[in-house]
Structures are given as structure tokens and as C-alpha cells.
Design goal:
alpha+beta, 137 residues, globular
């Protein structure tokens, strides 16, 4: 084994530090290029007063958690918050899914679990509105 001198130790430390710094800057640059995507979907049931249809839709939405690109899934119904002119509580249920980036959402759209969800549950709703947004930070 080669004896390490102070000079070779310092040279190794400089190379290691430069490598770490370069790796960190590449990771930072990659993170700047990838923007998290929020996919918010609102559903209006055909039978708005049917608890059975709502529960069935919620059951279907829960299956979407299994898709590998889904980072976070929030499933909800209108909250009993103060009714104001800017609040739309006319929908029956919603889902909010976070993806790492647009590519993750693209995978989700054609994923067999998502396609099965649409095929098996779309008969329940009369209207769907989707809001997709990219992180600006």
C-alpha cells in the first residue's frame, strides 16, 4: 500500500470536494428542470344524492394510489366551509394527485390502473373538470 503524505491527502480531499460539489450542482440543476405537477380532478355524479354512487366513486379513486408515479393522493368531498361567491361546492368528489414531473403524470394517464378506473367508474359521473398545474418554485 502506498504511503499517504500530507500532500497526497490534500490532493485527494480537493478531488473529492470538487466531485461532491459538481454532483450537488448537477442534482440542483436537474431539480430545477423538473417541476412538480399537481393534477386536480373534480367529479359531478349523475345521481348527486346517491351515497352508494359516491362511495363507489371513492372506492375507485383509492385504487389510483397503486400507480408508481403517484407521490401523494388526496381524495375529498366538498367541505362545510363558509359559502362565499368564490367557493364552488357543487361537485361530488375530487382527487388531488402530486407527481414529480410531467413525465410522471404522462405515465399515470396511460397506466392500466387509471384506464381501468375510467372504464369501470365513468358511468357514475356526468361531468369532470381537470386542473393541472406546474410548480413555479
Amino acid at each position: 500500500m502506498k504511503k499517504q503524505t500530507r500532500r497526497t491527502f490534500i490532493a485527494s480531499a480537493v478531488v473529492l470536494t470538487a466531485g461532491v460539489a459538481t454532483g450537488m450542482s448537477l442534482t440542483t440543476m436537474e431539480a430545477k428542470d423538473k417541476k412538480q405537477l399537481a393534477h386536480h380532478v373534480f367529479f359531478w355524479l349523475k345521481n348527486r344524492d346517491s351515497k352508494e354512487d359516491l362511495n363507489k366513486l371513492l372506492e375507485g379513486l383509492r385504487t389510483l394510489r397503486k400507480i408508481e408515479t403517484v407521490r401523494s393522493l388526496h381524495i375529498g368531498v366538498p367541505a362545510s366551509t363558509e359559502l362565499r361567491p368564490v367557493v364552488d361546492a357543487s361537485y361530488s368528489a375530487s382527487e388531488l394527485i402530486l407527481f414529480d414531473d410531467v413525465e410522471g403524470q404522462n405515465v399515470y394517464q396511460v397506466h392500466p390502473i387509471h384506464e381501468k378506473f375510467v372504464k369501470e367508474y365513468s358511468h357514475l359521473w356526468e361531468k369532470v373538470i381537470v386542473y393541472d398545474s406546474l410548480d413555479v418554485e
